[in-house]
Write a structure and sequence with these properties.
This protein is mainly alpha-helical and about 170 residues long. The protein is built from six helices and no strands. It has one domain. Helix content is about 70%, strand content about 0%. The chain starts with 11 loop residues before the first helix and ends in a 12-residue tail after the last helix.
Length: about 170
C-alpha cells in the first residue's frame, strides 16, 4: 500500500471518519471541566475534607478521561472492522469508574440538582457509555443512559447523603 501524496484531499468517507472521531474525542475531553464546576460549587458546604476529596476526584477523572478517549478510539476502530478493544483498556476503564463512583458517594459534598455528588456521578457513570457507544446497540445505550439518570436522580433526591460519620461533639 502506498503512502498518499502530501496535500492529497481526503475522500468523503475519510473526512466523515475524522469528523466523527474528533467530535467524540472532544466530547469526552470536555468532561474534564464538569467535575471541577459541579463539585466546586458545593465545596464550601463541607469544610476541610472537601479540597482533598476534590483533588482526588479531579485526578481520577483525568485518568478516566484518558482511558475513555483510548476506548473511544478503539471502539470506533472496532466498529469499522478493526481488532477487538483490548480487555486491559475495558478493565482499566471499569476499575477507574468504580473507584470514582466510590469517591463521589463517600467523599464529595452534597449539592443542589447536578452540583456536587450528583453531577460527579453523571460524569463518572456517563463517560464509559459515551466511550463504548460505537459498539453498543441503540437499546443498550438507552438502557445505560436511563440507568445513569436513575442513579443520579436517586442520589439527588436523597440529598446524596453519605454514610454517617462520627457524632459531632
Amino acid at each position: 500500500m502506498s503512502t498518499p501524496a502530501r496535500g492529497r484531499r481526503r475522500t468523503d468517507p475519510e473526512r466523515f471518519d475524522a469528523y466523527t472521531r474528533w467530535s467524540l474525542y472532544l466530547l469526552v475531553a470536555s468532561a474534564a471541566f464538569v467535575p471541577l464546576l459541579a463539585v466546586g460549587s458545593g465545596a464550601d458546604q463541607r469544610g476541610g475534607d472537601s479540597s482533598s476529596s476534590l483533588a482526588i476526584y479531579a485526578a481520577g477523572t483525568l485518568v478516566q478521561i484518558v482511558l475513555a478517549i483510548g476506548v473511544t478510539s478503539k471502539s470506533i476502530t472496532r466498529y469499522l472492522g478493526g481488532p477487538e478493544v483490548p480487555r486491559r483498556w475495558l478493565v482499566s476503564l471499569a476499575g477507574t469508574t468504580a473507584a470514582l463512583t466510590t469517591v463521589a458517594m463517600v467523599a464529595l459534598p452534597d449539592g443542589d440538582g447536578l452540583s456536587g455528588r450528583a453531577g460527579a456521578l453523571v460524569l463518572t457513570l456517563g463517560l464509559p457509555v459515551v466511550a463504548l457507544a460505537p459498539l453498543l446497540p441503540p437499546a443498550a445505550i438507552a438502557l445505560a443512559s436511563l440507568g445513569v439518570s436513575g442513579i443520579t436522580a436517586a442520589v439527588s433526591a436523597s440529598g446524596g447523603s453519605a454514610p454517617p460519620g462520627p457524632p459531632a461533639g
